Amino acid sequence: MRINGDIGVISDTHGQVRPEALSALADCELILHVGDIGKPEVMDALTEQAQVVAIRGNVDHGDWALAYPETQELTVNGLRIQMVHRHQDIPSLLPETPCDVVLFGHSHKPFSETKEGVLYFNPGSAGPRRFSLPVTVGRLRITDSGVEGHIQELDVPGPRRRK
After folding, report:
1. What confidence score (pLDDT) does residue 158 get?
2. 33 is a domain residue
3. pLDDT tens sequence across 108-131
4. Which is more confident, 103 or 146?
5. CA 107 to chain centre
């Protein structure tokens, strides 16, 4: 697959479609949802905006959720991307073949770190606020030297709660 521009990454929407998240990803022609979609309406809203590739998370149940695999592997502009919902499932669910990016969610904690040439990236949660964590989405920017992960905090109503 070839795209121009950034890849949007979203996770843990838990059935909530935030206008702020849609706005933050408005110029992305590809959006990757890393699980805990929550309701099919989330996918409807995202697919109105861009091409979407998604996996299901631990809260995704029912007939609608069966359309989404537990893991996904795709190649975008020559970069191999692997998707799994829970970080702890990376060793058991993802193939051992080399990749450039591993996307995960579940913890609601944004994370971006490159280890041994592989970007491990969690966009955080774009759904209901959890504890004192920010509400976020992510972007992958493909550059001449590889891929960079960027976290974008959404300006959403309501204070952050303390743990």
Report:
1. 67
2. yes
3. 999 999 999 999 999 999 999 887
4. 103
5. 12
Is residue 162 in a domain? no
Q: Where are the beta strands (DSSP E) in 2-160?
A: 7-10, 30-33, 51-54, 71-76, 79-84, 101-103, 111-115, 118-122, 136-143, 146-153
Whether residue 159 is contained in a domain is answered as no
> Residue 111 sits in which domain range?
7-153
Strand partners, 134: none
CATH value at residue 117: 3.60.21.10
pLDDT in tens, 64-91: 999 999 999 999 999 999 999 999 998 8
d(CA 79, CA 27): 20
In the chain, the percentage of residues whose pLDDT exceeds 70 is: 96
| 158 lies in some domain | no
Round to whole Å and give the CA distance between 116 and 39: 36
Query: How many domains does the chain contain in total?
Result: 1
Mean pLDDT of the chain: 92
- The pTM of the full predicted model, rounded to 2 decimals, is 0.93
- For every residue of 124-156, DSSP letters joined together read -BSSS--TTPPBEEEEEEEETTEEEEEEEE---
